[in-house]
Amino acid sequence: EPAPFAPRAGQWPTEVQATVGQPVIVRLPGTAGTGYMWQLASPPCALLPLAFSQQLETSKDGRVGGPSEWVFTFTADTAGTCNLTFQYLRPWERGVPPAETRTLAVTVVAP
Question: What's the pTM?
Fold first, then answer.
């Protein structure tokens, strides 16, 4: 099975290719304790449904304000192209633009 796509800080591409049946794992860096979180700007397209998302604390000493990582796992169900747009924001702040936005074009191909 091919390795899942998993970009990390400083390695964010604008597009990626996956194979039907392959997981697409997107990792986004953040800072714990700030209230900011990564969210999808809109629901993913039908060919790439969201299977799971979580926030992981990456600070070894457990300190508040340490680094964290948001992990989104999608399943490449059908061949086609889909844009995934993520926004780093505080969900309770209405009318405030996201601190960061990242878009990834995913092309899913048949095996």
Answer: 0.82
